[in-house]
Design a protein that fits this description.
The protein is 33% helix and 19% strand. With 353 residues, the protein is α/β, with parallel strands linked by helices. The strands form two sheets. An eight-stranded mixed β-sheet has the order 5-4-3-2-1-12-13-14. A six-stranded mixed β-sheet has the order 8-7-6-9-11-10. The radius of gyration is 20 Å and the shape is globular.
Length: 353
């Protein structure tokens, strides 16, 4: 009886915000956002409905999508220096799986670079929160990756730092760069021609000392072949966390999506926590948020939102946690078709209504 009452209340609730995962959710299998999706999200935005992104990507790796949606305000330098900019708060983004939250705005720039952040046509308007890895967890993760003979992405600010020791490792970084449109963000810390582990030790952080001197990583990402991702996820979990369930975890280890990498975060960090902190900054009740996702990293995110929606192509664990499962996959524009249904049913709240 209680479940049916809850379901009836959910049908009556009106939502003011949608938080969208990218890969496997908003983006199709070519990692692109369709014209129809862009048009509809702009329609929602124009009516005062809040659209946000919550992704495992870094802010710079999501920049092409933010630019394509074009929901960020264009704030001039004179407005930034005045109170006028407060009325044009930047586009809300939770990135690196909840480790960082930012507001993004557009600005004019004459720089030439493929990435909107590096050419400065998109800039961080405000950093809302940031929870990077500790020095201890960073060292331990790099040691585990070195032991497994795998390359690691080290995320600091807009760049990805990597040590590659052979062509197989370099190809995986190329694959990740192509997936996220982030090839220009890579900074290789070695020439990639050596295959001997003797040059790498704890003394130089297995080749990552140059990156560590810049600051702690928002996350670390261990690259591997798809056929090995489940085994690598389990091994990393065992190495970083205690097998004693009574002990608190020392790392949040996530199987990547698409499955050719494993992500490591601060143990308290996940997308759900990032969503909550973003909503606090927006004075937006979580109960009035719809969250869309598909992967293991979306589990807490789906659970914490007022209405968690799993894509038709989502992993079973995510579908089990969701209030709804879409009739459509990410290749069938499942996000906007579901939002359009909510709009027809009167379940979206607009500022102009």
């Amino acid at each position: 009886m209680a479940a049916s009452i809850s379901s009836a209340n959910d049908k009556k609730r009106r939502y003011r915000m949608a938080a969208l995962d990218l890969d496997g959710t908003l983006l199709n299998s070519n990692h692109e956002v369709s014209d129809a999706t862009v048009d509809y999200l702009r329609h929602l935005h124009a009516r005062g409905f809040v659209v946000a992104i919550a992704t495992g990507r870094s802010a710079a790796c999501a920049a092409h999508i933010v630019e394509r949606l074009d929901l960020s305000p264009d704030v001039s330098e004179s407005e930034v220096a005045s109170d006028a900019s407060e009325e044009k708060a930047g586009f809300p983004l939770v990135c690196t799986n909840g480790a960082r939250g930012v507001r993004i705005r557009k600005q004019h720039s004459s720089l030439d670079n493929p990435n909107p952040f590096l050419r400065q046509t998109l800039v961080i308007d405000e950093e809302l929160f940031h929870d990077p890895l500790s020095e201890e967890l960073t060292k331990k993760t790099l040691a585990v990756a070195n032991k497994l003979g795998l390359a690691t992405n080290y995320y600091y600010n807009h760049h990805i730092y990597a040590v590659v020791r052979n062509e197989e490792q370099r190809e995986l970084t190329r694959r990740y760069g192509k997936l996220t449109g982030s090839s220009e963000l890579y900074c290789y810390l070695n020439d990639g021609d050596d295959d001997g582990a003797n040059e790498y030790s704890e003394d130089n952080l297995w080749g990552y000392q140059g990156a560590a001197q810049l600051g702690p990583p928002s996350k670390l990402l261990i690259l591997c072949e798809t056929s090995k991702v489940d085994a690598v996820t389990e091994l990393v979990q065992q190495e970083l966390n205690s097998t004693d369930d009574t002990q608190p975890p020392k790392a949040n280890v996530i199987r990547g999506s698409p499955p050719f990498f494993v992500e490591i975060l601060d143990p308290a960090v996940h997308k759900g926590r990032g969503l909550r902190r973003l909503c606090e900054s927006l004075s937006m009740p979580l109960e009035e948020v719809i969250a869309f996702g598909d992967g293991d990293n979306d589990l807490e995110f789906i659970e914490m939102a007022g209405c968690g929606v799993a894509m038709k192509n989502a992993r079973d664990s995510v579908k089990g946690a969701a209030k709804e499962v879409t009739e459509w996959t990410n290749d069938e524009e499942g996000v906007i078709k579901t939002l359009q249904r909510f709009e027809r049913e009167g379940r979206l709240h607009f500022q102009d209504s």
